[in-house]
Automatic annotation (TrEMBL):
Family designation: Belongs to the sigma-70 factor family. ECF subfamily.
Domain RNA polymerase sigma factor 70 region 4 type: 102-152
Protein's name in the database: RNA polymerase sigma24 factor
Domain RNA polymerase sigma-70 region: 5-68
Transcription regulation in keyword set: yes
Subunit text: Interacts transiently with the RNA polymerase catalytic core formed by RpoA, RpoB, RpoC and RpoZ (2 alpha, 1 beta, 1 beta' and 1 omega subunit) to form the RNA polymerase holoenzyme that can initiate transcription.
Keywords linked to the UniProt accession: Sigma factor, Transcription, Transcription regulation
InterPro entries assigned to the protein according to its UniProt record, in alphabetical order: ECF_Sigma-70_Domain, NTF2-like_dom_sf, RNA_pol_sigma-70_dom, RNA_pol_sigma-70_ECF, RNA_pol_sigma70_r2, RNA_pol_sigma70_r4_t2, RNA_pol_sigma_r2, RNA_pol_sigma_r3/r4-like
Protein origin, superkingdom: Bacteria
C-alpha cells in the first residue's frame, strides 16, 4: 500500500500544484489523498495511478473552488507560489514550461474544471475517459472543456525562446546590474514595455498594480542595494540565481528567512518582458524548504 502510493507521489504533487498554483495546498491535497488511499478497498483498484489521480484531482478541485473567492479579494495581484526546479526536478514528471510562472498565471484565468482538464490532458497525457472519471463529468463535457482550455491557453501563453543559456546569461547580468544600481544596464536588458507584477498579499509593502515601462522597472530594481527591505539592510541581504518554476530566477534572503523571489519572461531576443516578484511570506515556504516541482529537491 505504502510503496504503491509513494511510487506515484511525485506525479500527484505535480498534478495538484498545477491545478492549485500553491505548493502548500498541493502538499495538503497529497496528504489527504494518502488518507483516502489508506482507507480504500484497494482490491477493487485495477489501475492505482488513475485511481490516485482521480482522488487528487477531486481534492484539488474542491480546494480550488473554495479558494476562488479569497483570490478575488486578494490585496494586490495574486501570483502562484514559487517552487525550486533545480537539477532535473522540473522534468521528473513533465516539461518545465507547464510549471512556469507565466503558464500558472494563464491557468489561473481558467475555470476550475477547465484548469483540471487541461492539466490532466495536455500536461500529463491522461485520456478523456480517464479524466471524465476523475472529475465526475461525461466524456463529451471533458472534451469540450479541454478544447476551450487549450484555445484559451494557446492565445495567452508566452512564446518562450529556445535558448535557455541566453535566459540565464540575461538573468545573471540583471542580478549584477540590480545589486550594483546600474540603471543603464537594466534598461538594456528590459523590453521597453516590460511589466513587473508584485505579490505582497497585504503582508508586506508591494505595488498594488502592475508596474510598466523599462525606465520605471529599472529604477525599482536599481534601488535594491540602497534601501532597507522588510527590515533587512542591503548589507544583510543575499541574492542568488537559481532555477524557479522551470527557468532562471532570483531568491533574496535575509539572515533568517527568504524575503522574495523574482522570475522572468523573455522575448525572442532575450530581453525581459515580464517579471513576477513574490514577497508574500505565506508563499515563500516552498522555496525556503527546498520544495521542487515534484517534491523536495535533493
Amino acid at each position: 500500500m505504502t510503496e504503491v502510493f509513494h511510487q506515484h507521489r511525485k506525479l500527484l504533487f505535480a498534478v495538484a500544484y498545477r491545478i492549485l498554483g500553491s505548493a502548500a495546498d498541493a502538499e495538503d491535497v497529497v496528504q489527504d489523498a494518502w488518507l483516502k488511499w489508506s482507507a480504500a478497498d484497494r482490491s477493487q483498484v485495477a489501475d492505482p495511478k488513475a485511481y490516485l489521480a482521480r482522488i487528487v484531482s477531486n481534492l484539488a478541485l474542491e480546494r480550488l473552488r473554495s479558494a476562488r473567492h479569497q483570490r478575488e479579494t486578494y490585496v494586490g495581484p495574486w501570483l502562484p507560489e514559487p517552487i525550486l526546479t533545480t537539477g532535473d526536478s522540473a522534468d521528473a514528471v513533465t516539461g518545465a514550461e507547464s510549471v512556469s510562472m507565466a503558464m500558472l498565471v494563464v491557468l489561473e484565468t481558467l475555470s476550475p474544471l477547465e484548469r483540471a482538464v487541461f492539466v490532466l490532458k495536455d500536461v500529463f497525457g491522461f485520456s478523456h475517459a480517464e479524466i471524465a472519471e476523475a472529475v465526475d463529468r461525461s466524456e463529451a463535457a471533458v472534451r469540450q472543456a479541454a478544447h476551450r482550455a487549450r484555445e484559451h491557453v494557446q492565445a495567452r501563453r508566452p512564446r518562450f525562446p529556445a535558448d535557455r543559456a541566453k535566459q540565464r546569461e540575461v538573468t545573471e547580468r540583471f542580478l549584477a546590474a540590480a545589486t550594483g544600481g546600474d540603471v543603464n544596464t537594466l534598461m538594456d536588458l528590459l523590453s521597453p514595455d516590460v511589466t513587473l507584477w508584485t505579490d505582497g498579499g497585504g503582508k508586506v509593502r508591494q505595488a498594488l498594480r502592475p508596474v510598466s515601462g523599462a525606465e520605471t522597472v529599472a529604477a525599482w530594481f536599481a534601488a535594491i542595494g540602497t534601501v532597507t527591505y522588510q527590515g533587512v539592510a542591503p548589507a544583510d541581504m543575499v541574492a542568488e540565481l537559481t532555477e524557479i518554476n522551470g527557468g532562471p530566477g532570483l531568491v533574496f534572503r535575509g539572515p533568517d528567512r527568504v524575503i522574495a523571489t523574482v522570475t522572468f519572461d523573455f522575448d525572442a531576443d532575450g530581453r525581459i518582458t515580464t517579471l513576477h516578484n513574490v514577497a508574500n511570506p505565506d508563499k515563500l515556504g516552498a522555496v525556503a524548504r527546498g520544495l521542487g516541482a515534484s517534491g523536495p529537491v535533493a
